[in-house]
Design goal:
Blueprint: H1 2-49, E1 61-64, E2 67-70, E3 82-88, H2 92-96, H3 98-105, E4 116-121, H4 134-137, E5 142-145, H5 149-154, E6 164-167, E7 173-176, H6 183-199
Parallel strand pairs: 3-4, 4-5
Antiparallel strand pairs: 1-2, 1-5, 3-6, 6-7
């Protein structure tokens, strides 16, 4: 009798272990395929956008020192390279990232600060006059994009990982990614910029 009970208990433990193992395999396999799918999707986006010619809409105006100017005044097309980053002013953490940009523009990208273009998507310009806004104290010029034309005219995804890029003198994409968040991306940017400078 005791032997039979022990056998039943062992069988139940085995079944529980087996079911648990199946659940773990299912969860990890789902996670694997989800990650794989996301990786493939990202890879496809990069392939599609790499070497794409980026348009900077003429209607975007430059805000500098509380004054608005047409972007043609700054002759953006004459730059040998550009780092463009699009920032959603309605996103607090996105605007907060301007502090990181300020730091790196005074350090790693000091020699490139005149080649960095900030495109600010902002529906209401009066938001800029808010003394609590980082946009109000940001020491560098940026382009105002009230209608989100930069994303629309370039067919860029909503995924903000694709909103920062390095362009060559023909405005074609060389690299994607925010160099303020990744030392590896930062190294790639610096390496590519040095290559461009050598060719000048």
């Amino acid at each position: 009798m005791l032997t039979s009970i022990l056998k039943i208990c062992k069988m139940k433990k085995f079944k529980i272990y087996f079911i648990s193992l199946l659940i773990i395999i299912f969860i990890t396999s789902c996670d694997y395929f989800t990650k794989k799918k996301a990786f493939i999707s990202t890879k496809q986006k990069i392939s599609k956008l790499y070497n794409k010619k980026i348009i900077i809409p003429d209607s975007l105006q430059v805000l500098l020192n509380d004054s608005i100017h047409p972007n043609s005044k700054y002759k953006l097309d004459t730059l040998k390279y550009k780092i463009i980053t699009r920032i959603n002013a309605n996103c607090f953490s996105c605007v907060k990232n301007l502090e990181r940009w300020t730091y790196y523009m005074n350090n790693d990208f000091e020699a490139s600060k005149n080649n960095i273009i900030f495109i600010i998507y902002i529906e209401e310009f009066n938001f800029i006059n808010d003394s609590t806004s980082l946009l109000n104290v940001f020491p560098f010029p940026f382009l105002l994009d009230k209608y989100d034309l930069f994303l629309q005219e370039n067919g860029l995804p909503e995924d903000k990982r694709f909103h920062t890029m390095l362009l060559n003198n023909q405005n074609r994409v060389i690299l994607f990614g925010d160099p303020t968040f990744s030392s590896e991306i930062r190294k790639l940017y610096i390496k590519q910029i040095e290559k461009i400078k050598v060719k000048q």
